[in-house]
Specification:
The chain crosses the membrane at residues 461-482, 494-515, 535-558, 570-593, 599-618, 690-711. By secondary structure, this protein is an alpha/beta fold. The chain has helices at 2-19, 70-75, 157-165, 207-218, 223-236, 258-270, 288-303, 317-320, 340-349, 360-368, 371-378, 396-408, 411-425, 439-456, 462-478, 489-506, 511-525, 532-562, 568-596, 599-615, 628-638, 640-653, 668-672, 684-710, 717-729, and strands spanning 30-33, 44-47, 114-123, 132-141, 146-150, 172-180, 192-195, 276-279, 307-312, 325-330, 333-339, 383-384, 387-388, 657-660, 664-667.
Length: 730
C-alpha cells in the first residue's frame, strides 16, 4: 500500500503540473461535469464541484409494453450511484438530439432491462497467463439508456458483449447469470439485435432497398407493414437524406461514407424493433464528426425506449457526455460500473483526477492501458519544453490494482449489487419471438435480390461474359475453316478441348464476387436472417439466367465460327452441355471459397485444380493410356472437363460418316477414337449430361455442409445450443 500511495502522489503531482499553468489551480481540483439544467446546454469544465457522500437519485422510466415490467420500476427507486450529489441522468447536458425529419413520427420501442451477475468467460489460448477473458463482472442496463463497455484493446469488451447477447463461440465457457427482465430465459429471435464491428453491406443497392430486402428476410406479415418499419428505421438512424443513394463502397462505385454505412448496418437490426440492441464498436473507423453524429443518433434511439449496450475503445469529450453508464474493463477485470460522472469521481478518489483539457476516455485509457509503459520506457530520457514527456509517470499495473481495489470497497459497487438484486427479485414480462419469414419467402427474396445485384455489378457476370466472348472469338478465328474432312478430326477435338478448358479457367474471375456473397450470407446468418439452404438456393436460381446467357452467347459464336454440324438439335445440346459445365464450375468455386475464405489461396487452388483436370481430360493422352493409380483414379472421374468434352464430341461425331477414298467409309466413332476416347452408345452423351448435373448439385451440397456444419459455428440453431450449454455449465 505504501508503494501504491507513493505512486498515486507522483501521479497527482505530475498530472497537475503537465495539464495547467502554475498560476492556476492544480488539475486535481478540476472535474469534467455537465451543468444541471437544460438538455441542450453545452458541455463545460468547472472548478471542484461539491460531492456529497450519499443521496438518493430517482430514475424514472416508462413501462413500455413488453418492456422491463414492475421489477424495473421497483429497482430504479433505489440509489444508483451514492457518490453523485445533486446530479441525475436527466440533468446531464449533451449535444442537441436531432428530431425526425419530414414530419414523420417514429414509434416508440419497448425496451427491456438486462443485468449480469458474477459473469466470467473463459477461452483457452485467449490470454497469455489466464484463460479468463472476463472476470466476475456485474452490471445492468435500463430501457432508454446507453450503457457503454470501455477499455483498452484485449480487455474483454467484445467478449462481455457477446456473452450478454448469448453469442459466444462454442470454445468459450460462461459462468454466472444473465437476467432479461428479471428472468434467466434466453432472448428469442427478434427480441434483440446485434451489430458486428464490421458488417458486410451490398453496395449496389440503395439504403431503402437494402433495408427493405432485410425486412423481407426477417419479418413475417404483409409488404406494407414491412415498408413502414423500414421507414421507421431510416428515420431513427437519421438516414432520410441518403435513403435513395447507393450504399457503394467499391472503387468504381461512389456511395456513402463510413459513418452513414455504419448507421445503415444498425438500421438493418432496427427493422425488427428489438428491445435490446448490442453494438460492437459503433465508432469503428469513424472520424470525430461522424462519431459524434453516430452517438447523437444512438442517443435519439435510446430516447425512443430501446436499451442500448455497446463497446467503445475511446471517445471525444462530446461523445463521452452522451453516455449514461460506463463499464470500465482492463484485462477482464471490472474497474468501475456506474454513471459516467461517478466514474470521474471514482478516478479522483483513487488518486487519478482527470486533468483539464483532456478527454475523460483518454484519461481512463491512459491510466489502465499497459501499452503506455513501453512508450515511457522508450522515451524516459527525453525531455520536451514542458518537462517530462508523459504527464502520467505512474506504472499502469499499480494504477489498475489501485482502481480495482478502490471500486470493490466503494459504495458504487454496493449500489450495483443492490440494483441487480432489485432487478432479479421478481420476473417481469417475458420477451416473445416476433416470428420469422417463411423459407419460401426467403428463397424468393434472395433470388430476386441476387438478380438485381448481379445485373448492377459488372464484376459478377458481365465481366465474365466479356471475357468469354473474347476467348470465343480468339478460338473461333484460330480454328475457323476446318471443314468436315477426316483430316480435320484431330484439330476439331483440340478446338472443343480448348474451348471448354479455357472457359472454365476464366470462370475464376468470379471468385471475388462469390466471396462477397459468402460474406453477406455470414453477416445475415449471424443474426438468423438467412440460412445455408435458402442462401444456396437463392444464389443458384439467381445465377441461372446469367450463366445461361454466357452459355448461349459463347456457344453460338464458337459453334458457327468453327463450323460444327449444321443441326439445331445438336446445337441445343452443345448449349446445354456448356451450361451444365458452367454450373459445375460455379459450384466448384463456391466450395473452394468456403474452404479457404481467402481470395489468394482460393484462386491458387482453383488454378491448380483446373490444370490437373485439363491434364486428365484425355486430350494430351488417351484416357486408357493414363496411369491408373493417380490419373485415372480419381482425377479422370472427378474432372468435369472429361464429361463435358466427351459429351460434346459424342454429339458431334456419333452418327457422322467419313469417306475414305471413293468406295470406303468409316463412322465418326472410328474416326475419333485415335484422338479421343468416347463411347459408341448414342445415349452416352445424355449420361454425361446427367453426370454434370449431379456434380453441379454435389458441389452445392458440399457448400451446404461447409456453411451449415463446418465453417459457420455462430449462426442460426447454434445460438440456442451454445446458450443452453452455457446455462448447463453454470
Amino acid at each position: 500500500m505504501e508503494e501504491i500511495q507513493s505512486q498515486s502522489d507522483l501521479y497527482r503531482s505530475s498530472s497537475s503540473s503537465a495539464s495547467s499553468p502554475t498560476s492556476r489551480v492544480p488539475s486535481s481540483h478540476f472535474f469534467y461535469v455537465r451543468k444541471p439544467g437544460s438538455l441542450r446546454q453545452p458541455i463545460s469544465f468547472e472548478d471542484s464541484p461539491e460531492w456529497e457522500d450519499t443521496t438518493d437519485i430517482d430514475v424514472r422510466m416508462e413501462d413500455e409494453a413488453g418492456g422491463g415490467g414492475d421489477s424495473i420500476n421497483d429497482a430504479t427507486a433505489t440509489p444508483i450511484s451514492p457518490s453523485l450529489s445533486k446530479i441525475n441522468s436527466g440533468s446531464m447536458a449533451s449535444p442537441p438530439v436531432p428530431e425526425g425529419g419530414g414530419g414523420v413520427v417514429v414509434r416508440k420501442i419497448a425496451g427491456a432491462s438486462i443485468a449480469w451477475k458474477d459473469l466470467t468467460v473463459t477461452m483457452k489460448g485467449k490470454r497469455k497467463y489466464s484463460d479468463k477473458v472476463v472476470k466476475s463482472s456485474n452490471g445492468y442496463a435500463f430501457p432508454g439508456t446507453m450503457t457503454v463497455i470501455m477499455g483498452p484493446a484485449k480487455s474483454g469488451k467484445s467478449t462481455l458483449l457477446r456473452a450478454l447477447a448469448g453469442r459466444l463461440p462454442p470454445s468459450a465457457k460462461m459462468y454466472g447469470e444473465v437476467f432479461v427482465n428479471g428472468s434467466k430465459s434466453h432472448m428469442p429471435y427478434g427480441s434483440y439485435g446485434f451489430v458486428e464491428r464490421e458488417t458486410q453491406l451490398i453496395g449496389s443497392l440503395t439504403v431503402r432497398e437494402f433495408l427493405y430486402y432485410s425486412a423481407l428476410l426477417q419479418l413475417p406479415g404483409f409488404l406494407f407493414q414491412k415498408r413502414s418499419v423500414v421507414e421507421d428505421a431510416i428515420q431513427a438512424m437519421s438516414l432520410s437524406d441518403y435513403a435513395n443513394k447507393l450504399i457503394g463502397g467499391h472503387c468504381y462505385m461512389k456511395g456513402l461514407r463510413s459513418g452513414e454505412r455504419r448507421r445503415v448496418s444498425i438500421a438493418r437490426e432496427l427493422v425488427m424493433r428489438p428491445h435490446i440492441l448490442f453494438i460492437d464498436e459503433p465508432l469503428y473507423h469513424l472520424d470525430s464528426v461522424s462519431a459524434l453524429l453516430m452517438m447523437v443518433t444512438l442517443k435519439k434511439l435510446a430516447s425512443m425506449g430501446c436499451t442500448l449496450v455497446f463497446t467503445i475503445y475511446q471517445s471525444s469529450t462530446e461523445v463521452f457526455g452522451l453516455f449514461d453508464r460506463i463499464c470500465l474493463l482492463s484485462n477482464g477485470n471490472t474497474l468501475f460500473f456506474g454513471e459516467t460522472l461517478a466514474c470521474l469521481q471514482h478516478f479522483s478518489n483513487a488518486g487519478f483526477p482527470c486533468p483539464i483539457m483532456q478527454s475523460p476516455s483518454d484519461h481512463f485509457l491512459r491510466a489502465i492501458n499497459t501499452d503506455f509503459d513501453r512508450i515511457i520506457a522508450m522515451c524516459k530520457n527525453w525531455q520536451d519544453d514542458n518537462g517530462d514527456f508523459s504527464a502520467v509517470n505512474m506504472d499502469t499495473a499499480v494504477a489498475i490494482r489501485t482502481l480495482e481495489a478502490t471500486y470493490k470497497s466503494s459504495a458504487d459497487a454496493d449500489s450495483v449489487e443492490t440494483m441487480i438484486l432489485k432487478l432479479t427479485e421478481r420476473e417481469g414480462t417475458q420477451l416473445k419471438s416476433k416470428g420469422k419469414a417463411g423459407a419460401a419467402t426467403r428463397v424468393a427474396v434472395l433470388t430476386w435480390r441476387s438478380l438485381l445485384v448481379m445485373s448492377r455489378e459488372w464484376n459478377y457476370y458481365w465481366l465474365r461474359l466479356i471475357l468469354y466472348m473474347i476467348l470465343t472469338l480468339c478460338i473461333g478465328t484460330l480454328y475457323s475453316g476446318l471443314g468436315h474432312s477426316l483430316s480435320s478430326v484431330a484439330t476439331r477435338v483440340a478446338a472443343v478441348f480448348v474451348f471448354v478448358s479455357f472457359a472454365s479457367l476464366l470462370g475464376i474471375a468470379g471468385i471475388p464476387s462469390l466471396f462477397k456473397e459468402i460474406k453477406i450470407y455470414r453477416s445475415e446468418a449471424s443474426n438468423q436472417h438467412s440460412g445455408a439452404f435458402v442462401f444456396l438456393l437463392g444464389q443458384f436460381l439467381g445465377s441461372i439466367p446469367f450463366l445461361f446467357l454466357m452459355s448461349i452467347s459463347s456457344s453460338l459464336v464458337f459453334y458457327f465460327m468453327v463450323g460444327l454440324r449444321d443441326d439445331f438439335s445438336l446445337l441445343m445440346y452443345f448449349v446445354l452441355n456448356f451450361f451444365m459445365c458452367l454450373l459445375v464450375n460455379e459450384g466448384l468455386m463456391l466450395s473452394i471459397a468456403c474452404i479457404w475464405r481467402d481470395v489468394y489461396w482460393s484462386t491458387l487452388t482453383l488454378i491448380s485444380v483446373h490444370v490437373i483436370m485439363m491434364l486428365s481430360a484425355g486430350h494430351f493422352r488417351i484416357r486408357n493410356a493414363l496411369p491408373k493409380p493417380v490419373w485415372t483414379y480419381p482425377f479422370v472421374y472427378i474432372s468435369f472437363h472429361t464429361y463435358s468434352i466427351e459429351g460434346l464430341l459424342e454429339n458431334e461425331y456419333l452418327g457422322e460418316v467419313f469417306a475414305v477414298g471413293e468406295v470406303r467409309s468409316i463412322s465418326g466413332y472410328q474416326a475419333i477414337r485415335g484422338d479421343y476416347q468416347i463411347s459408341p452408345d448414342t445415349n452416352s452423351k445424355w449420361r454425361n449430361m446427367l453426370v454434370l448435373l449431379a456434380m453441379a448439385f454435389g458441389y452445392r451440397l458440399l457448400v451446404y455442409v461447409l456453411l451449415r456444419f463446418g465453417l459457420n459455428k455462430n449462426v442460426s440453431g447454434r445460438l440456442l445450443l451454445c446458450h443452453r450449454k452455457n446455462n448447463s455449465s453454470r
